[in-house]
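DM from R.C. (forwarded with permission)

"hey, sorry to bug you on a friday — could you get me a structure for this? deadline for the figure draft is monday and I only need the backbone to look sensible"
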Amino acid sequence: MLCACYTCQRMKEVRQFLAEDMKRFEITFNKAVESHVSLLDHIMRYIVKTRGKQLRPMFVMLSAKVCGNLNEVSYRAASLIELLHTATLVHDDVVDDSDQRRGFFSINALWKNKIAVLVGDYLLSKGLLLSLGKGDFRILEILATAVKEMSEGELLQAEKARRLDIDEKVYFEIIRCKTASLIASACSAGAYSAAGNEEHAQRMRIFGEKVGIAFQIRDDLFDYGQTDVGKPTGNDIKEKKMTLPLIYTLSHCDKATRQRIIALFKHPHKNRSEISYILDAVQAHGGIRYAEDVMKTYMEEAFQELDFFPPGEALTHLKSLVHYTIDRKH
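My reply, with the result:
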């Protein structure tokens, strides 16, 4: 892994490389979310103000630059994926009854669930109209497939969580759908927008899927507080989410430890010492180290997909963006 300061510097260089393109993307996105309904327009301005790092639009634009040239289709594709991503986050906060998002109050916390659901629906519809209005049918197909897979992933996780029978095969299918599909579609849509080349789009889809899986494993590792990401949060354990470090531990520990972990994991109100027991067990049985190794393997495989494309500044920055997603501290 790269040190934090070096990773941040590379990310700064990526943002500088995309500075003018991000401005044009912002114009397209802001125009797409406009509404004549004052309440909705007010909420849209709040969403624009509280958005995150916009990694997915950056994946769209860098993938387009690797495969050709950015154009209006690329900016619409970047806006579409940001609309869809934001819509899923708004809906997720309702499902999870979460009152915060990125340190800000969530939409449902400020305007209640009914408004939040309608806002998510509005964002989805605006994304559809943005693409349909300009005839970007292939781009829309790529991203609509991702939304379908994200829903399937959430439902598969809910189904399996009741029985705690999530093995590695099921886990990877869940995160492929829930997280990796949207990053994969961002890269695929960006590649296709540049020149309409299906082979490029497919290669970038595979690249993005592998990055997305590594991205989710990194998120999983935050729960266990590696030395380079600060104190353990234990949030996934509190919420009874089976992640890779725990799945590995359950399949490699002795029977008594497994039974103890499962009993604690099922408990709806785990105290600090119970969470600490699970965290310590995962550490002791190599679950964290195993997950780190798998994450690195997926990142390396993602980079191998890029060997097909000629070297250049855009490719260098795309790799830097991947390093940032994997080496980030939050």
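R.C.: lifesaver. The chain is about 75% helix and 0% strand.
me: no worries. The first helix runs from residue 4 to 17.
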